[in-house]
């Protein structure tokens, strides 16, 4: 997608003006608006955050694609106006602001209808984008795998298709390149819809292919007997930093939202000797546009299937509770029970940012939650708490997995090879008569197979180091 160029604004500002109300200001200079509508039924999600916290988040989102935020306001509204979303007085006021700051772009952190968007663009002589458009841009820039790129492009096209009330300059350009398109009698919107429809079909076909390949990869990875530990968390919680700390691998970790659109997998050996596959995932966000839910699902398959889910939370953030609730919502949407303490471990990150009092409070509340619900306070930045975290993972793993003891004929090379491929071999000793005594560990669903094939016995023994 053309918008993936980081220097380009979502407005596609480099394109030639098609109408007189094209942006007059600099399209990288953005005014950020958070409309705050009086509470209405069914808007619970939005109300978790104060308008100021939402403004901070909106500014962060704009900054995530290198936009220069020149002004940011919370706009109190009693009701949404069908034509312009905001009341006429506010529209005028903001128009002045846009002009004064020579902004070419206004980000309205709300779902705007195509008509509202168009009217506001006219009123402000600036490009207007809503939350969905901005998030799509961010996801588009951060997509790292082919599947991620295709999913975001598909979401983008569906979004465009639903908003065909105005010309889309890139489509015009495309039409210029294919002069045969747009036969007689075909309106511009019909032609645009057809072009978008064709591209959607093409991308869907490509996605099918990519998915098939990925399914094959997943199947082969499943043969590796290591459990998958997935990191989830609100955007900017510190997942990539923690991932790096745990793997000492280099993935993009920076103070940007969505540094990780696609899952990243690394094999990690814990100090206890346990091998795990660590999976970094996309940062969650509140009010995720519906167009992206499908893309999210695909990239989050790792989470759905993970043996352990680490929920990374920024406990130094004033909105940490609301963020945790948003993450729980997304997990629920994926069919994962966020209250399943058996599978989830909460990692309370960024404790280095807390003052003495905050630290004491955090450690005390962590200590109050016992057993599986016990959260692990850490600093991915300084490394504090990493040993405790690894130990917690190892404990959870050894508890959930089944340890089996078996004897093997030394001539059964094939059987031995099979065991190494399909289980974790914890111990291997040869008796005087040559018989191999093996202790292996597997996920419970594999145990039956090994019991039948090798006459293995379940044992309570665990590796001493754990
Ligand atoms: N002070 C402090 N900063 C941290 C810590 N962990 C991460 N950060 C910072 O927080 C910012 C976001 O960290 P990331 O690791 O990119 O966060 P993420 O959760 O992967 O972000 P997304 O990919 O956007 O979801 C970066 O500036 C990190 O340096 C921590 O323990 N302490």
Task: Walk me through this protein's architecture.
The chain is an alpha/beta fold and 466 residues long. The chain folds into 4 domains: 2-8 and 21-142, 3-Layer(aba) Sandwich (Rossmann fold), CATH 3.40.50; 152-220, no CATH class; 225-399, 3-Layer(aba) Sandwich (Rossmann fold), CATH 3.40.50.300; 401-459, Alpha-Beta Plaits (2-Layer Sandwich). It is built from 15 helices and 14 strands. The strands form 3 sheets. A 6-stranded mixed sheet has the order 6-7-5-8-9-10, sandwiched between helices. Strands 2-1-3-4 form a 4-stranded parallel sheet, with helices on both faces. Strands 12-13-11-14 form a 4-stranded antiparallel sheet. Helix 3 links the parallel strand 3 and strand 4. The two termini are 48 Å apart. Mean pLDDT is 79; it is low at 1-20, 166-184, 249-259 and 461-466. It binds guanosine-5'-triphosphate. The site of guanosine-5'-triphosphate has 23 residues, from helix 8.
Shape: elongated
Small molecules (ligands, ions, cofactors) in the structure: guanosine-5'-triphosphate
Count of domains: 4
SSE string, helix = H, strand = E?
EHEHEHEHHHHEHEEHHEHEHEHEHEEHE
Looking at the structure, the CATH topology of the largest domain is Rossmann fold
Do you know the CATH architecture of the largest domain? 3-Layer(aba) Sandwich
Q: Which structural class do you get from the secondary structure elements?
A: alpha/beta
Strand count, sense and barrel status of the largest sheet are: 6 strands, mixed
Kindly report the name of the CATH homologous superfamily of the largest domain.
P-loop containing nucleotide triphosphate hydrolases
Tally of alpha and pi helices: 15
Helix content: 40-55%
Domain Hflx-type G: 227-401
Region (Disordered): 1-29
Function: GTPase that associates with the 50S ribosomal subunit and may have a role during protein synthesis or ribosome biogenesis.
Protein name: GTPase HflX
């Amino acid at each position: 997608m053309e918008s993936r160029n980081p220097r380009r604004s979502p407005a596609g500002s480099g394109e030639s003006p098609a109408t007189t109300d094209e942006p007059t200001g600099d399209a990288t200079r953005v005014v950020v608006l958070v409309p705050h509508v009086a509470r209405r039924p069914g808007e619970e999600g939005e109300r978790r955050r104060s308008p100021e916290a939402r403004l901070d988040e909106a500014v962060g989102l704009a900054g995530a694609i290198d936009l220069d935020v020149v002004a940011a306001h919370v706009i109190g509204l009693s009701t949404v106006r069908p034509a312009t979303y905001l009341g006429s007085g506010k529209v005028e006021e903001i128009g002045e602001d846009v002009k004064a700051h020579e902004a070419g772009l206004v980000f309205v952190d709300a779902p705007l209808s195509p008509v509202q968007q168009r009217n506001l663009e006219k009123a402000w002589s600036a490009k207007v984008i809503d939350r969905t458009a901005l998030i799509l841009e961010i996801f588009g820039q951060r997509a790292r795998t082919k599947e991620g790129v295709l999913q975001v492009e598909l979401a983008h096209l569906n979004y465009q298709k639903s908003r065909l009330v105005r010309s889309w300059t890139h489509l015009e350009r495309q039409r210029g390149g294919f002069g045969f398109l747009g036969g007689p009698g075909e309106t511009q919107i019909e032609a645009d819809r057809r072009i978008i429809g064709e591209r959607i079909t093409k991308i869907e076909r490509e996605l099918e292919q990519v998915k098939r390949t990925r399914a094959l990869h997943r199947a082969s990875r499943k043969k590796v007997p290591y459990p998958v530990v997935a990191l989830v968390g609100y955007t900017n919680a510190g997942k990539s930093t923690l991932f790096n700390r745990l793997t000492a691998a280099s993935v993009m970790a920076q103070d940007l939202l969505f540094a990780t659109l696609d899952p990243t997998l690394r094999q990690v050996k814990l100090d206890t000797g346990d091998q795990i596959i660590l999976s970094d995932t996309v940062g969650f966000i509140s009010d995720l546009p519906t167009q992206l839910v499908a893309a999210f699902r695909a990239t989050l398959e790792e989470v759905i299937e993970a043996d352990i889910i680490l929920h990374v939370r920024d406990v130094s953030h004033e909105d940490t509770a609301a963020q945790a609730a948003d993450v729980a919502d997304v997990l629920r949407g994926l069919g994962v029970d966020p209250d399943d303490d058996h599978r989830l471990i909460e990692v309370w990150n960024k404790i280095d940012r807390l003052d003495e009092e905050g630290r004491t409070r955090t450690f005390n509340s962590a200590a109050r939650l016992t057993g599986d619900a016990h959260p692990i306070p850490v600093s991915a930045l300084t490394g504090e708490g990493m040993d405790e975290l690894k130990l917690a993972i190892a404990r959870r793993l050894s508890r959930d997995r089944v340890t089996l003891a078996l004897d093997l004929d030394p001539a059964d090379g094939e059987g031995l090879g099979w065991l190494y491929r399909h289980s974790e071999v914890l111990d291997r000793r040869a008796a005087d008569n040559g018989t191999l005594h093996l202790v292996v560990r597997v996920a419970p669903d594999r145990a039956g197979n090994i019991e039948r094939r090798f006459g293995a016995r379940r044992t309570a023994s665990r590796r001493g180091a754990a």
